[in-house]
Amino acid sequence: MKKIILTAVFCLFLVSRTLVSAETDEVTDNLKRRLQESLTATDSGSESPLSLRGYIGVVKDIIDTTIILEDKDGKKDVRLAEDANILRSPGNATIKATNINIGDAIIAIGTPEKDDILTGRRLIVSSSAFAAPAKTSSLGVIAKITKSSLTLTIGDKDQIVSLNSKTIFKSPAGSIELSDLAVGDTIIYTATLDDDTQTATIVMRIKTTSSDSSDQ
Amino acid sequence: MKVKKEISLALFIGLLLALLITGGVLRARRALQNFTPPSLSFRATPNPTSSPSSLYLEITSPDNVVTDTSKLTISGKTIPATFVAILGENGEYLIVPDELGSFSQEISLTKGANTIKVTVYTINGERVEKTLNAVYTTAEI
Q1: Which of A28, A113, A213, B8 has its CA 20 to 30 A from that of B41?
Q2: Secondary-structure class of domain A50-126 per CATH
């Protein structure tokens, strides 16, 4: 009986080892494959987009091969890589670092290094700003409704928002129509800006007067 | 003869046990692969004394990202029962976070510089705003 138990345990041990070994081989193969992929990416001379960062700002200063730009968060240093590709937009003509001007709008793409410094590998500069989209969003209470506009009370001011055939009307529950809106409803909207004219792209009703309750 | 019989029996039992254990392990692995943890949902009791200043906006998507595809997912967290407006270069989005305040929206990018403005609103008109930058390029860098 003792022999039977010992042999059974031995067989079990052998089978378990085979199983574990198969799993280890699988993990090793996966690691090898990933390493190979990583090496292939490096060999091709291009950076994975994941390891890159892009700063969008304005050139504030140029000291040797370091460009100091200011973006939405403040000043950033971009140290030019030896093989940095610098382009001037529009036209994308290749230029030298000496042709970058203080005040130029800049997109600096590169790899982040220590102390928040970017090694710039591709820089695009332009004498005109890379403008942020002329768009806005706001929350207001409907004071007046026409077929082509909504007059909203936003804080203590009135704002007219134009509507067009592309304006989308919705509530948190789904699509609605302009005819579903009523004076006193609370809405959030997104709009494009053209001078002082706001044209709504999406209108979401979030509170109705009829039930005086949230649409959520 | 008796020893031979015992060895055969032992081998048979061992193999049977191994087969059972292997089957169990495989079943467990398959079950774990298909296992999705139950979603936790709870309804918070409205607190009339809660301060409106607790409104916040946390963007979990990376800032200053460089991408070689025209789509980017903007994810974040805020308080529940709010509304999120996302203004991109190539489109606008109005979404409602889930009951835990999490939100996620895939947006379209234009080539080059993209400024993405994310604003969260409460029903009372309070708002918090954050801006993200992204660069979409297909150039080899």
Answers
A1: A213
A2: mainly beta
